[in-house]
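Morning. Coffee machine broken again, so started the prediction first thing and wrote up yesterday's gels while waiting. Chain of 189 residues, entered below exactly as on the submission form.
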Amino acid sequence: SNTYSILSYLRKANVKATFFVVPNRSEECAATLRAIAADGHAIGVHSASHEYEKIYASVEAFLDDFYEAWDIIRDSTGISTEIFRFPGGSNNGSSYVVNGIIDEMEERGFQYFDWNVSSGDGSELTTTENIIDNICSNVGVPENPVVLMHDGRGKNATLAALPTVLEYLSDNGYEFCSLDKNVEAVHYR
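Came back before lunch.
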Protein backbone atom coordinates (compact mmCIF):
# COMPACT_ATOMS: atom_id res chain seq x y z
CA SER A 1 0.00 0.00 0.00
CA ASN A 2 3.01 2.30 0.32
CA THR A 3 4.62 1.36 -2.97
CA TYR A 4 3.58 4.43 -4.94
CA SER A 5 4.87 6.77 -2.25
CA ILE A 6 8.12 4.84 -2.08
CA LEU A 7 8.44 5.01 -5.86
CA SER A 8 8.02 8.78 -5.64
CA TYR A 9 10.82 9.09 -3.06
CA LEU A 10 13.10 6.84 -5.10
CA ARG A 11 12.35 8.83 -8.27
CA LYS A 12 13.15 12.16 -6.55
CA ALA A 13 16.44 10.75 -5.23
CA ASN A 14 17.25 9.10 -8.59
CA VAL A 15 17.65 5.74 -6.84
CA LYS A 16 16.99 2.32 -8.31
CA ALA A 17 15.89 -0.45 -5.98
CA THR A 18 14.72 -4.05 -6.09
CA PHE A 19 11.20 -5.06 -5.16
CA PHE A 20 10.79 -8.70 -4.14
CA VAL A 21 7.04 -9.01 -4.48
CA VAL A 22 4.13 -11.09 -3.22
CA PRO A 23 1.83 -10.56 -6.21
CA ASN A 24 -1.73 -11.55 -6.90
CA ARG A 25 -3.79 -11.63 -10.07
CA SER A 26 -5.66 -8.36 -9.46
CA GLU A 27 -5.49 -5.43 -11.86
CA GLU A 28 -4.37 -3.26 -8.93
CA CYS A 29 -1.34 -5.49 -8.41
CA ALA A 30 -0.59 -5.59 -12.14
CA ALA A 31 -0.68 -1.78 -12.27
CA THR A 32 1.71 -1.57 -9.31
CA LEU A 33 4.12 -4.05 -10.90
CA ARG A 34 4.03 -2.03 -14.14
CA ALA A 35 4.75 1.18 -12.19
CA ILE A 36 7.77 -0.44 -10.50
CA ALA A 37 9.08 -1.64 -13.86
CA ALA A 38 8.37 1.67 -15.60
CA ASP A 39 10.55 3.47 -13.07
CA GLY A 40 13.43 1.11 -13.88
CA HIS A 41 13.48 -0.89 -10.67
CA ALA A 42 14.19 -4.60 -10.58
CA ILE A 43 11.42 -7.00 -9.67
CA GLY A 44 12.07 -10.35 -8.06
CA VAL A 45 9.87 -13.10 -6.70
CA HIS A 46 9.30 -13.25 -2.97
CA SER A 47 6.30 -15.58 -2.87
CA ALA A 48 2.76 -15.95 -4.15
CA SER A 49 1.37 -16.92 -0.76
CA HIS A 50 4.03 -16.12 1.87
CA GLU A 51 2.67 -19.12 3.82
CA TYR A 52 5.77 -20.76 5.29
CA GLU A 53 4.19 -24.13 6.10
CA LYS A 54 2.82 -24.38 2.58
CA ILE A 55 5.84 -23.25 0.55
CA TYR A 56 8.48 -24.99 2.65
CA ALA A 57 6.64 -28.33 2.71
CA SER A 58 8.81 -29.58 -0.18
CA VAL A 59 10.87 -28.43 -3.14
CA GLU A 60 7.84 -29.01 -5.36
CA ALA A 61 5.60 -26.91 -3.11
CA PHE A 62 8.12 -24.06 -3.25
CA LEU A 63 8.32 -24.33 -7.04
CA ASP A 64 4.52 -24.22 -7.39
CA ASP A 65 4.33 -21.06 -5.27
CA PHE A 66 7.36 -19.51 -6.98
CA TYR A 67 6.07 -20.04 -10.52
CA GLU A 68 2.65 -18.64 -9.62
CA ALA A 69 4.35 -15.39 -8.56
CA TRP A 70 6.79 -15.52 -11.50
CA ASP A 71 3.89 -15.89 -13.98
CA ILE A 72 2.03 -12.94 -12.46
CA ILE A 73 5.13 -10.74 -12.80
CA ARG A 74 5.70 -11.84 -16.40
CA ASP A 75 2.03 -11.49 -17.36
CA SER A 76 1.84 -8.01 -15.80
CA THR A 77 5.17 -6.57 -16.96
CA GLY A 78 6.68 -8.81 -19.62
CA ILE A 79 9.67 -9.30 -17.31
CA SER A 80 10.95 -12.86 -16.84
CA THR A 81 12.75 -12.21 -13.57
CA GLU A 82 15.72 -14.34 -12.63
CA ILE A 83 15.99 -13.33 -8.98
CA PHE A 84 14.15 -14.21 -5.80
CA ARG A 85 14.23 -13.82 -2.04
CA PHE A 86 13.10 -16.52 0.35
CA PRO A 87 10.36 -15.55 2.79
CA GLY A 88 12.30 -15.32 6.04
CA GLY A 89 15.62 -15.49 4.19
CA SER A 90 17.51 -18.62 3.28
CA ASN A 91 18.14 -19.41 6.96
CA ASN A 92 14.45 -19.34 7.90
CA GLY A 93 14.51 -22.58 9.86
CA SER A 94 13.47 -24.72 6.89
CA SER A 95 17.00 -25.85 6.06
CA TYR A 96 15.79 -29.40 5.50
CA VAL A 97 14.14 -28.19 2.28
CA VAL A 98 15.86 -24.86 1.54
CA ASN A 99 19.12 -26.49 0.46
CA GLY A 100 17.22 -28.59 -2.08
CA ILE A 101 15.32 -25.51 -3.26
CA ILE A 102 18.57 -23.58 -3.72
CA ASP A 103 20.09 -26.39 -5.78
CA GLU A 104 16.96 -26.71 -7.92
CA MET A 105 16.58 -22.95 -8.45
CA GLU A 106 20.24 -22.49 -9.38
CA GLU A 107 19.93 -25.36 -11.85
CA ARG A 108 16.96 -23.53 -13.39
CA GLY A 109 19.03 -20.33 -13.71
CA PHE A 110 17.64 -18.35 -10.78
CA GLN A 111 19.67 -16.43 -8.20
CA TYR A 112 18.50 -15.86 -4.64
CA PHE A 113 19.38 -12.91 -2.46
CA ASP A 114 19.48 -12.54 1.28
CA TRP A 115 20.35 -9.25 3.01
CA ASN A 116 23.12 -8.09 5.31
CA VAL A 117 21.50 -4.92 6.70
CA SER A 118 17.99 -5.09 8.12
CA SER A 119 15.86 -2.03 8.69
CA GLY A 120 14.03 -4.01 11.38
CA ASP A 121 10.72 -2.98 9.84
CA GLY A 122 9.41 -6.53 9.87
CA SER A 123 8.11 -5.79 13.34
CA GLU A 124 4.94 -3.76 13.70
CA LEU A 125 6.51 -2.11 16.77
CA THR A 126 9.47 -0.61 14.91
CA THR A 127 9.56 3.18 14.84
CA THR A 128 10.82 5.51 12.15
CA GLU A 129 13.80 6.37 14.37
CA ASN A 130 14.61 2.66 14.87
CA ILE A 131 14.60 2.06 11.13
CA ILE A 132 16.88 5.03 10.46
CA ASP A 133 19.26 3.91 13.21
CA ASN A 134 19.23 0.24 12.13
CA ILE A 135 20.22 1.13 8.59
CA CYS A 136 22.55 4.08 9.15
CA SER A 137 24.42 2.38 12.01
CA ASN A 138 24.90 -0.93 10.21
CA VAL A 139 25.27 -0.13 6.54
CA GLY A 140 29.02 0.47 6.91
CA VAL A 141 29.71 -3.00 8.32
CA PRO A 142 29.34 -5.17 5.18
CA GLU A 143 31.43 -4.37 2.12
CA ASN A 144 28.42 -4.38 -0.21
CA PRO A 145 25.32 -3.71 1.86
CA VAL A 146 21.99 -5.12 0.77
CA VAL A 147 19.33 -3.40 2.87
CA LEU A 148 16.03 -5.12 3.66
CA MET A 149 12.96 -2.87 3.88
CA HIS A 150 9.25 -3.57 3.41
CA ASP A 151 6.59 -1.54 1.62
CA GLY A 152 3.44 -3.36 2.64
CA ARG A 153 0.37 -2.35 4.56
CA GLY A 154 1.18 -0.90 7.97
CA LYS A 155 4.77 0.02 7.08
CA ASN A 156 4.27 3.75 7.55
CA ALA A 157 7.42 4.02 9.69
CA THR A 158 9.40 2.66 6.73
CA LEU A 159 7.88 5.24 4.45
CA ALA A 160 8.67 8.02 6.93
CA ALA A 161 12.29 6.81 7.35
CA LEU A 162 13.06 6.49 3.65
CA PRO A 163 13.92 10.13 2.81
CA THR A 164 16.36 10.37 5.75
CA VAL A 165 17.95 7.01 4.91
CA LEU A 166 18.36 7.93 1.23
CA GLU A 167 19.91 11.29 2.13
CA TYR A 168 22.28 9.73 4.69
CA LEU A 169 23.47 7.03 2.30
CA SER A 170 23.90 9.47 -0.56
CA ASP A 171 25.77 11.99 1.62
CA ASN A 172 28.10 9.19 2.75
CA GLY A 173 29.07 8.15 -0.76
CA TYR A 174 26.96 5.05 -1.20
CA GLU A 175 25.87 4.15 -4.70
CA PHE A 176 22.47 2.62 -5.26
CA CYS A 177 21.73 -0.17 -7.68
CA SER A 178 19.06 -2.73 -8.22
CA LEU A 179 19.88 -6.41 -7.96
CA ASP A 180 20.20 -8.82 -10.84
CA LYS A 181 22.04 -12.06 -11.57
CA ASN A 182 25.25 -10.12 -12.29
CA VAL A 183 25.41 -8.58 -8.81
CA GLU A 184 27.31 -10.58 -6.21
CA ALA A 185 24.55 -12.06 -4.08
CA VAL A 186 24.45 -11.92 -0.31
CA HIS A 187 23.84 -15.46 0.96
CA TYR A 188 23.52 -16.80 4.47
CA ARG A 189 24.66 -20.29 3.58
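Residues 14 and 78 are 24 Å apart (CA to CA). Going to sketch it on the whiteboard this afternoon.
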